[in-house]
Amino acid sequence: MTTMNDLPRDLVEEILFRVPLTSLGAIRSTCKNWNVLSKKQIIGKKATAARKQFLGFIMMDYRVCSIKFDLQNEGEFVDPSIKQVDILNQVEISRVIHCDGLLLCVTKDSSRLVVWNPYLGKTRWIQPRTSFHRSDRYALGCDENRNHKILRIFGDSGYSQDFGYEIYNFSSNSWKVFYATPGWSIEFCHPQSGVSLKGNAYFLAQTHKTVEAQMRGEVLLPFDFRMEKFRAELPLPFHSYGADSFLSLSCVREEQLAVLYEGWRCGHTVEIWVTNKIDLGSVSWSMFLRSISSCHLSPLGRSFFIDEERKFGVVFDLDNEFPKNNTPCNQTANIIGQDGYFKSVNIREAKIYRKPHRFGKILLYYLQPLVCSSSYVPSLVHLQQINQPHSG
């Protein structure tokens, strides 16, 4: 009787290549040979394939989902597959941050954090030192020894004296608190105001250095997880002053940053810039694409990623921003290309949410999809669950 171990190695590798990312972890326990081959898929062929297709995770309706699809040369959004992640079904998630094959998830009620390794199928719950708040900003990173850490930014850096940040260290299971008086503020309202790259974090921030002009300019703000401190601001490749524009950050694999600029001052303009070089002390940019068209994206926080080979940007959005008389709304993937190319593809119908508002009114809203990784490469990092952390 033929067993899986009797099959040709090339055939087994092809089978493993077609297995969903979130199921590869179960294969490791089948036998030693499958364990070795599954790791090869993670570091070799699987990682290479991730550069050529969109394979990652997206938050939709407060749930984390895996997403996989192909984008053809004509901008066709082919065979999208979106599946809810079962291991996180017990909680609603409001934000997701990706770094080094790990996902940091913030619960909707802001009571806890959970770090999830999709490949190993393991989670680690992080309790607050005192408490979390819905306006906190987060990042996930690591130092030069691959010790993973969580950055939590609390307070209003623009107006409050109670601004600071704290670091959770996975290896010591402890929080360390820092206070600061910065010359910048980090926007909370844009979910994609910060991303992790090469173990460090980068945020979109507003510098206060142009107060004499009564304007605050946008900058790129690095956070060094090795030194556990913010570094000097880096320039963006354009001038933006908030009211007339929208910005969003994204990672290009784990090698480059991309920034989306959308402006309405002189018609509707969308620009996407990509870093040629970036580190904690310097950055250089090149234009990826620029489009002037009549397409309209909502002015709220959006997420996006790019297809380098085909020169497309994919922006996730809603086709109906404001609920009115229970009007149907779709979560969409908007494909933007050169020469004004624009195509909107419905992913699925958005749920309508209700929350109490002032004077007894009920506020209706839809939730935008938030892509947190589009070229995910699984990680072999183990997450050991530890009891309540202590402060350091």
Automatic annotation (TrEMBL):
Residue limits of the F-box domain? 1-47
Return the SMART domains for the record. Answer: FBOX
| Record-linked InterPro entries | F-box-assoc_dom_typ1, F-box-assoc_interact_dom, F-box-like_dom_sf, F-box_dom, Gal_Oxase/kelch_b-propeller, SCF_F-box_component
Top-level taxon in the UniProt lineage: Eukaryota
Sorted alphabetically, which Pfam families does this protein's record hold? Answer: F-box (PF00646), FBA_1 (PF07734)
Checking NCBIfam families in the record gives: F_box_assoc_1
Q: What is this protein called?
A: F-box domain-containing protein
Species of origin reads Capsella rubella
